[in-house]
Design a protein that fits this description.
Layout: E1 2-3, H1 10-23, E2 28-32, H2 47-58, E3 64-66, H3 69-73, H4 79-89, E4 96-100, H5 101-110, H6 113-119, E5 121-125, H7 134-137, E6 149-152, H8 161-169, H9 180-188, H10 195-202
Parallel strand pairs: 1-2, 2-3, 4-5, 5-6
Helix pairs in contact: 2-9
The structure holds adenosine-5'-triphosphate and magnesium ion (MG).
Residues 3-6, 11-12, 15, 99-100, 102-103, 125, 127, 157, 159-162 line the site of adenosine-5'-triphosphate.
Family: Belongs to the NadD family.
Pathway: Cofactor biosynthesis; NAD(+) biosynthesis; deamido-NAD(+) from nicotinate D-ribonucleotide: step 1/1
GO molecular function, one term: nicotinate-nucleotide adenylyltransferase activity
Length: 203
């Protein structure tokens, strides 16, 4: 499961857990993206902070692990590179790429989907506010083999990292939206505060 994870929240964890149970997966590997040049006009937190929050959030689940492949590659992240690297690290494994309804459409519309489907099966999970319908997500994919993309309903958690960041900035709670250790990590590292505020709180 790839993501910016800035920060990781319970929507990500529930989606991973549901898909793992549905498909009998041995392991879910969370793969935080490398440092993008730009993500929709905002600065993304340092990769090491996003990586560590992901480690903290997944530590208690023996089937959840975190990979640094995208962070260590040092270039903007493309799913095709992630999947190629993971295939090399797990030869013979059957890979599934887990993604939310919002991200599935964009991955499949602008990346080379023929190559992608040769590397992994794709699992799109429901997400409040987004349509989980493959004809709408990617109309050109209607003639795909059935196993290439599966759509899975997961318990609806209307949580986004964007809202978590806005809450921290506004001094509102993120308890129970993200794991407890992530709440503590955000506060310890002064993440998501305005720059001036962050500098003051360090001083
Ligand atoms: P941001 O608001 O910064 O975009 P986000 O909450 O969308 O953050 P990402 O790191 O962008 O989180 O998402 C990683 C993956 O998890 C994506 O495939 C996304 O669709 C999926 N995802 C995120 N939140 C949810 C949720 N609440 N329910 C289901 N899937 C989710
Ligand atoms: Mg997102």
């Amino acid at each position: 499961m790839g993501g910016t994870f800035d920060p990781i929240h319970h929507g990500h964890l529930v989606a991973a857990s549901e898909v793992a149970a549905r498909f009998g997966l041995d392991e879910v590997i969370f793969v935080p993206t490398g440092q993008p040049w730009q993500k929709s006009m905002r600065e993304v937190s340092p990769a090491e902070d996003r990586y560590l929050m992901t480690v903290v959030a997944t530590a208690s689940n023996p089937r959840f692990t975190v990979s640094r492949v995208d962070i260590d590659r040092g270039t903007p992240t493309y799913t095709v590179d992630t999947l190629r690297d993971l295939r090399e690290m797990y030869p013979g494994a059957e890979l599934y790429f887990i993604t939310g309804a919002d991200a599935l459409g964009s991955i499949l519309s602008w990346q080379n989907w023929r190559t992608l489907f040769g590397l992994a099966r794709f699992v799109g999970v429901s997400r409040p506010g987004y349509d989980l319908n493959v004809e709408h997500l990617a109309p050109h994919l209607s003639d795909l083999p059935d196993e290439a993309v599966s759509l899975v309903e997961v318990p609806a958690l209307a949580i986004s990292s964007t809202e978590c960041r806005e809450r921290v900035r506004a001094n509102r709670p993120v308890w129970y939206l993200v794991p407890d250790g992530v709440v503590q990590y955000i506060s310890k590292r002064h993440l998501y505060l305005e720059r001036a505020t962050a500098a003051e709180s360090v001083a």
